[in-house]
């Protein structure tokens, strides 16, 4: 039971870490904001108690603005700000665009709009536009939605002269890095997968670290020298058998040739002696 509770707590902590909070800071400024696909994105407006109206726009591809969210005070009431109106239970006119209506909520205590289950179309430039009693201010956020890092997979392929280690994971804009026994081997940028080539005798703990702008993960495996390939052994044995098969007939041929040469040599020597003997008799 404790193990199950611990796993559930770990999953909840992991999910919470992927929830992002981005703030509209200085007026007439723009900054980047990264959000995790499928998780929460909280957009905090500028904290200013003198708002009379608040609007949140999203810039579309054609340059036009879509009103995503707005809070306007009811004009028949005359209070200094929407925060004070909320605290005094004065009705406010709140509008939410249909694209986020069923998956968003607004918190007045910190002036934050939270969008649940963020999708890729939620990416874009958002503008917070507030109207005060005597002026208007706006601030921009460039929201970028990325798929978080998934499980990391590491595999090994052995060849005749090297070991290749492959690493892959789900997610957007992935950056890979490798360590062997705590020492950084290589860092690189790749959208799909990454691999590294090592000497075939390399061993130790090799780690593949994967990260993007919103999450990270790592997997470590124990690397052992590659065993001798069975295919390589079979090929070597086949080559040896072929070589022995050739050496046998060659050895027999050489013995036969050598014996014949010795026999011919004996015949020549015998004929030479007989020739000398006939010459001596004639003389």
Architecture blueprint of SSEs:
Blueprint: H1 2-17, E1 20-23, E2 30-36, E3 41-44, E4 53-59, E5 65-73, H2 82-87, E6 92-96, E7 104-107, E8 112-115, E9 124-131, E10 136-146, E11 152-158, E12 162-169, E13 175-180, E14 183-189, E15 193-199, E16 204-211, E17 216-223, H3 230-282
Parallel strand pairs: 1-3, 2-10
Antiparallel strand pairs: 3-8, 4-5, 4-9, 5-6, 7-8, 9-10, 11-12, 12-15, 13-14, 13-16, 16-17
Please give a quick description of this structure.
The chain crosses the membrane at residues 228-253. By secondary structure, the chain is of the alpha+beta class.
Notes on the protein architecture:
- Keywords: Glycoprotein, Membrane, Signal, Transmembrane, Transmembrane helix.
- It is found in: Membrane.
- One of its GO terms (cellular component) is membrane.
- This protein has 283 residues and is an alpha+beta fold.
- The chain has two domains: 131 residues, Immunoglobulin-like (Sandwich); 72 residues, Immunoglobulins (Immunoglobulin-like, Sandwich).
- The protein has three helices and 17 strands.
- The protein has a six-stranded mixed β-sheet. It has a four-stranded mixed β-sheet with strand order 1-3-8-7, with no helix packed on it.
- Strand 4 and strand 5 form a beta hairpin.
- The protein starts with a helix and ends with a helix.
- The N terminus is likely disordered.
The shape is rod-shaped
CATH H-level superfamily title of the largest domain: Immunoglobulins
Count of beta strands: 17
Tally of discrete structural domains: 2
List the defining traits of the structure above.
283 residues, alpha+beta, Immunoglobulin-like, 2 domains, 4-stranded mixed beta sheet, 3 helices, rod-shaped, disordered N terminus, membrane, glycoprotein, Ig-like_dom, transmembrane, CD2/SLAM_rcpt
């Amino acid at each position: 039971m404790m193990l199950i509770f611990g796993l559930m707590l770990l999953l909840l902590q992991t999910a919470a870490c992927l929830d992002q909070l981005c703030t509209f800071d200085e007026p007439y400024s723009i900054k980047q904001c990264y959000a995790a696909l499928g998780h929460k994105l909280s957009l905090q407006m500028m904290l200013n108690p003198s708002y009379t109206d608040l609007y949140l726009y999203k810039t579309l591809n054609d340059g036009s603005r879509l009103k995503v969210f707005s809070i306007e005070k009811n004009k028949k009431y005359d209070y200094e700000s929407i925060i004070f109106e909320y605290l005094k239970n004065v009705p406010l006119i709140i509008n939410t665009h249909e694209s986020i209506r069923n998956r968003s909520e607004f918190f007045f205590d910190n002036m934050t709009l939270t969008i649940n289950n963020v999708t890729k179309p939620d990416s874009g430039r958002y503008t917070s536009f507030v109207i005060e009693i005597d002026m208007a201010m706006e601030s921009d956020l460039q929201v970028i939605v990325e798929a978080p890092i998934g499980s990391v997979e590491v595999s090994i392929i052995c060849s005749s002269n090297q070991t290749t280690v492959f690493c892959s994971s789900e997610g957007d804009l992935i950056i890979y890095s490798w360590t062997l026994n705590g020492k950084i081997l290589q860092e690189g940028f790749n959208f799909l997968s990454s691999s590294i080539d090592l000497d075939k005798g390399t061993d130790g703990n090799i780690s593949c670290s994967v990260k993007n702008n919103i999450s990270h993960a790592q997997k470590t495996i124990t690397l052992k020298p590659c065993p001798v390939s069975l295919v390589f052994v079979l090929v070597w044995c086949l080559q040896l058998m072929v070589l022995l098969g050739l050496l046998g007939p060659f050895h027999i041929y050489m013995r036969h040739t050598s014996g014949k040469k010795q026999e011919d040599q004996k015949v020549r020597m015998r004929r030479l002696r007989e020739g000398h003997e006939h010459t001596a008799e004639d003389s």
